[in-house]
Amino acid sequence: MSQYLDRAFSSASLGPLKLRNRIIKAATFEGRTPGGIPGKDLYQFHKQFCDGGVGMTTLAYCATEADGRVSHDMMYMGDHIRPELTRMIDGLHQTGARVSGQMAHCGYFSKNQALQRVRNPKGPSIQLNTLGMTVGRPLAGAMSEKDIHYMVKTYRDAALFMKEVGFDAIEIHFGHGYGLSQFISPKTNRRSDQYGGSLANRMRLPLRCLEAVKNAVGDDVAVIGKMGLTDAVKGGLQLEEAVEVAAMLDQGGIDGLITSGGTSSFNVMHMFRGTSIADGMAEMQKNRLLKSVFKMVGPRIFKEYPYQELYFLEGCKRVRDRVRNAQMIYIGGCHTMESLEVVMREGIDFVQLGRALIKDPAYVNNASRQGHKYVNGCTHCNQCVTMIEAPGGPHCPLNVQPAVVEERV
Ligand SMILES: Cc1cc2nc3c(=O)[nH]c(=O)nc-3n(C[C@H](O)[C@H](O)[C@H](O)COP(=O)(O)O)c2cc1C
Hints:
By secondary structure, this protein is of the alpha/beta class. The chain has helices at 3-8, 40-51, 82-93, 130-133, 145-165, 179-184, 199-202, 204-217, 239-251, 269-272, 278-284, 288-301, 313-322, 337-345, 355-359, 363-370, 383-386; strands spanning 12-14, 17-19, 23-25, 56-63, 98-104, 122-123, 127-128, 139-142, 169-173, 222-228, 256-260, 327-331, 350-353. It has a single domain, classed as Aldolase class I (TIM Barrel, Alpha-Beta Barrel), CATH 3.20.20.70.
């Protein structure tokens, strides 16, 4: 095995954490928390990656409050799931892997019909909530200063809770069109107060949330962030500003940065590349009207981008060259051993894998044994993405029998 593959599969520190290797399971929404409650299915999903050797797995979309969920079937952090999460994280720790939680708030991008605190979802500015249209909530409101202070508090409370239940790392979501990214993006933030306008103003809320999380967890929990290199939409965040976003998060003391791109709201295929999810999304719709709408407008919403390996590498390197202290975590189409070597040779610290691990949960064990002979087999068909809301959640259709572990939480 080359020195670069050796580096990938050897232990490394991420902020205050020691990981057994540099491969991290990326947050891929599991679709295994019906009603927002974690149970055996979620545990088994993550156990397969941990048994398969990853250094750390990531529980996707841990909302900071009930109304921070895109849908009712997502978890929000709170006492109602304390025993389940504590048991689950304990169980995953037994494998030797670390456990991260992706901390998120949807802002206005919501189709949650069980809103508790607000009547309509809110973001930085009044706007059309295209996702909300599917449930008859097409209009999103603008957050008041009071709402903003409250949001910061939800990040602090969620962080305290996540530390208590045993998460080793918290991955704050600053990208993909969710709440904090709505403030960063000039397309969705049209405020004229101290939270809108200049980049410094648009970053005020995200930096306050970062500070609140860091103060809440202290020095034992790694605090990392997933950010966008571009919104890939006219009027949205572009690379030049994104590099400065990274510099600000770095100055704010973030331990690691994951450089993704695209948004779920405007251009989701920029995040994935490969086969468009248009047909799959239409197929998954149960409502006949929505099915026809998806068939008609799907190809325009879900643009096809040809897949190429390491499609976010250039942007990631720009960020790497700009930040001083934050460690770099690569994400986006690192599916071959050659690509893994390139990322390691560039001095990037960690790699997050989404689809490659859905295809082969034992990627680390297999690849570290086979070296250059290892072939992952993910074809970027993106069918796993279309299954986000399917019964049983996303899995790889190419795997005849998805790996299942028997153990109970
Ligand atoms: C089924 C599925 C669900 C996803 N859910 C999330 C999510 O909840 N949060 C997130 O930040 N990214 C999510 N992603 C995006 C991945 O984290 C990652 O950015 C993307 O798949 C590119 O990495 P890859 O080439 O290693 O798959 C999801 C991806 C897939 C395939």
